[in-house]
Amino acid sequence: MDAVDDTVQFSGMDWPIWNRSHTAGFFAGPCSVRTRDDGRAYQTQIEGGPALDPQVAVDLMKAHWEEKGYTIGNVFDDGNPATGIQLNARTSTGVRLQFSPTPHVSFIKVVSACTLDPNARKKTT
Length: 125
Known about the structure:
With 125 residues, the chain is α+β, with helices and mostly antiparallel strands. 19% of the residues lie in helices and 31% in strands. The chain contains two helices and six strands.
C-alpha cells in the first residue's frame, strides 16, 4: 500500500479509483518460497489518467524510485504511444512495482513479496 500510495502521490497524475483504505479485490496469486506455489503474493493494478509526456513521467519516477533505494528492473518501450512505456522496480522488501504512463491512460501495478502466511490465501474484502 505504501509503495502504491507513494507512486500515486509522486506521479502528480490523476488516479480517481485509488483509495489506500480500499483493499477489496486484491488478488492473492500463487508464488514460491520453498516449493512450487507454496506461498501467496497479493497484487493489484489501478488505472489513472493520461501522462502529458510519458517519457518525462518515466524518467522522473525512475529517479524517485532510485532515490528511495528501489532496484530498477526492465524498462519496456515499443515506441507505440498507445502502449506507452513500462518501468519496473523492486523494493528492498521484495515488493514489485510497475509504472506504465501513456498519453491516454496510465497504470500502476504492485505485487507483494511472497509469503507463507495462511491468511494470505484469503481474498481481500
